[in-house]
Specification:
Number of strands: 25
Number of helices: 14
Structural class: alpha/beta
Largest sheet: 7 strands, mixed
Strand order of the largest sheet: 15-18-19-14-13-21-22
Radius of gyration: 23 Å
Distance between the termini: 67 Å
Shape: globular
Bound molecules: succinic acid
């Protein structure tokens, strides 16, 4: 693919800047294109554009707004190859995963085009005979979004589609690692005919965006996917003008295997949950607790599958694991493995990273004899490492699983409906995979408990997050 030099998209125009950022392929360090270093003025201009576009956008019928989203959906599907290639080039994920992400990202557009038609109100009997109460739902207003590099398309559409469907207008700051996918999406929005100002994308330094948003009374909602630390800061900043917030933050997902689990199914689920995007997902299983009766067998079967994974440049045929996003991420993964080994863990396979031709690759790793004092059992590793700790009972596993400030996704495996139902209810997580390692779906309310976030994305809850409630008290 040719070098891509893309511009920011504000008020329906393609806007450059005095300075540019290079965009780098994490598989080999090559510069694949550039994007503008937007300024605070650009962010302010995008806010004004979204604010001015709001009255006419919210006045459209749900049918009309859905029509624009459906046109965008069609363009994404028609251009799957183009978008997937850009994604692999700037994020590193294997082509098969990038294609799957285009489908996943587009599924939010389709789902919320349909949900636009189901924004229902209600009527309530009045307090007096001559009173009627009508409850209506209306768009919150201008929405600002900050999205991460691990899902360069889907984390935008999961926010943008419900916002637009609800009648809000939208601006997004994509990450510096993967801005090209975001700007390409804007190209599709332009082709789909969205009126100027309804969607805007500004690549800009973090502070330029967050400070301008913080100080703006026009932005009524901030939505963010990223770390708990940044989420906490953004929440404080949102207090300035009492903005609505939806945050999807860090995870620390437990993966519990009980003695009566179907091990073939469990191993397949572990592979799906752990190695998607080289382990760089917020819902990746991070720490494994396996009952003593199946511990050895599980480690053996799992290792057999892990050894088959092929690591390399995501553009190459047959690759399962691409590079980690950068040196910092790579060093964290190595630190977690080294710490575990220093504290007595045994490397069953993998265990080492390699810097190769400017890319940071980490061998898929299984660790056994793991204990709960190790870093990998207490912090999100964000890499292809499976640490397996032996437990004696389901209760012990659930206790360890809940002993964290995080609560995004949790997985467990048992064939017993009675035990499983109790465990599902006991785990303090917003997303539960019971005998299942790939729970993400446009129709489900994705989000975390505790310090893993606030609000839900996807499902009907996903559009609720962009609506205000108003009641009208009518005197007869
Ligand atoms: C994430 O890692 O933040 C999102 C994963 C998903 O949507 O499946």
């Amino acid at each position: 693919m040719e070098r891509m030099d893309l511009l920011n998209y504000i008020r329906g125009d393609w806007v450059g800047a005095d300075e540019n950022y290079d965009v780098v392929n994490p598989a080999n360090g090559e510069v694949i294109g550039s994007v503008p270093k937007g300024t605070e003025r650009d962010v302010a201009e995008a806010i004004d554009a979204a604010y001015e576009a709001l009255p006419s956008w919210r006045e459209l019928t749900a049918e009309e707004r859905a029509g624009y989203l459906e046109a965008l959906f069609d363009l994404m599907i028609e251009n799957e190859d183009e978008l997937a290639t850009i994604m692999t080039l700037e994020n590193g994920k294997p082509m098969k995963e990038s294609r799957a992400e285009v489908q996943y990202a587009a599924s939010f557009i389709k789902w919320f085009a349909e949900e636009a038609r189901r924004i229902y109100g209600k009527t309530i009997p009045g307090k007096a005979k001559n009173q009627r109460i009508q409850v209506i739902r209306q768009p919150v207003g201008v929405v600002a979004a900050i999205t991460p590099w691990n899902f360069p398309a889907a984390m935008i559409t999961r926010k943008m589609a419900p916002a637009l469907a609800a009648g809000c207008t939208f601006l997004v700051k994509p990450p510096l690692e993967t801005p090209l996918t975001a700007l390409k999406l804007m190209e599709y929005c332009e082709r789909a005919g969205f009126p100027a100002g309804v969607v805007n994308t500004i690549v800009t330094p973090d502070e330029a965006f967050s400070e301008t948003i913080k100080n703006s009374e026009k932005v009524r909602k901030l939505t963010f996917t990223g770390s708990t630390e940044v989420g906490s800061l953004l929440m404080k900043q949102s207090a300035e003008h009492i903005k609505n917030v939806s945050f999807e933050l860090g995870g620390q997902a437990p993966f519990i295997v009980l003695n009566d689990a179907d091990l073939d199914k469990t191993v397949a689920a572990a592979m799906a949950s752990k190695f998607r995007n080289a382990g760089q997902t917020c819902i990746a299983s991070n720490r494994f607790y396996v009952e003593a009766g199946v511990y050895d067998k599980f480690v053996e079967q799992l290792t057999e599958q892990v050894k088959k994974l092929k690591v390399g440049n995501g553009l190459d045929e047959g690759i399962d694991i691409g590079p980690l996003i950068n040196k910092e991420g790579f060093e964290k993964v190595q630190k977690h493995v080294n710490d575990a080994v220093d504290k007595g863990a045994e490397v069953v396979c993998g265990g080492k990273g390699e810097e190769k031709n400017g890319g940071y690759f980490f061998a898929p790793t299984v660790l056994k004899n793991v204990s709960d004092d190790m870093l990998c059992m207490n912090e999100e590793t964000f890499g292809p490492v499976i640490p397996v700790q032996k437990v004696e009972t389901a209760e012990e596993a659930v206790g360890l699983a809940n002993a964290t400030r995080f609560g995004l996704a949790g997985y467990f495996f048992t064939e017993s409906v009675t035990r499983g139902t109790k465990i599902a209810e006991a785990l303090d997580y917003g997303i539960i995979g019971w005998n299942h390692g790939a729970p993400s779906a446009a129709q489900a309310p994705f989000g975390g408990m505790k310090e893993s976030g606030i609000g839900r994305e996807g499902g009907h809850e996903g559009i609720e997050a962009y609506l205000e409630t108003k009641y009208i008290s009518l005197g007869l």
